[in-house]
Design goal:
The protein is α/β, with parallel strands linked by helices and 214 residues long. It is built from twelve helices and six strands. Strand 4, helix 10 and strand 5 form a beta-alpha-beta unit. The protein is elongated and about 60 Å long.
């Protein structure tokens, strides 16, 4: 933990605040006085490093991404977030001012979301290994596709790949503009499909960032 904290240039006290623990707990983890943290703490640790780096311009993460060869993925993602607890899709759809196009009978929850620049994704993502990155830590998430004209392309892409999200959101078009094939594919795959009527992507991203599931 100490190696990565220092690599990201975060003070021990700041990391403790982000994790919601005391500085002495972080110190114990780093020195080995306390046994290794569980997976939930590690997950919060990673997310905290990335989010804190984002506030500073994201230089460290961009450097790591370039080294790891995932820059095309980053160029395709507008925003990405993991929730600390599962969130029902109904309140999420209400938050994004969504109109239902297909709503399956069973209840779904999501553990996060990814906002995808559809044009950039078509241009930059070349294989399943890069497509998988859009799902973050769980397939139980919302994939929000922006800059879509009819909604066919993202639904066809999802039909091809094995992984399926728990919610697909189309942004940048009216519900009546969505192609019948997109809705039919959602029904076949059993994926909830929604159109967000928030007018611009910046407002949508900011609204989602302010959302607190706790």
């Amino acid at each position: 933990m100490r190696k990565w904290r220092e690599y990201f240039g975060i003070k021990q006290s700041d990391l403790a605040r982000l994790l919601g623990v005391s500085a002495s707990v972080v110190s114990d983890y780093e020195s080995g006085r306390r046994r290794s943290p569980g997976s939930l703490v590690i997950k919060r640790f990673i997310i905290s490093l990335i989010e804190e780096d984002e506030k500073r311009g994201g230089k460290v993460f961009k450097t790591l991404a370039k080294m790891a060869g995932i820059q095309p993925f980053l160029n395709s993602v507008v925003d990405m977030r993991e929730f600390p607890i599962p969130v029902g899709i109904e309140p999420f759809v209400e938050l994004i001012e969504g109109t239902w196009l297909y709503k399956p009978p069973r209840k779904f929850t999501i553990n996060g979301y990814t906002i995808i620049d559809s044009y950039a994704a078509i241009k930059n993502l070349s294989g399943s290994s890069e497509f998988i990155l859009l799902f973050g830590s769980s397939t139980e998430r919302a994939l929000i596709f922006t800059k879509v004209s009819e909604g066919k392309s993202p639904m066809v892409a999802l039909k091809v790949f094995d992984l399926k999200p728990n919610l697909v959101v189309l942004h940048g078009l009216k519900p009546e503009s969505v192609h019948d094939l997109a809705i039919k594919l959602a029904e076949i795959m059993g994926i909830p499909l929604v159109v967000s009527e928030i007018p611009d992507i910046t407002t949508l991203a900011q609204k989602l960032r302010k959302f607190s599931p706790l």
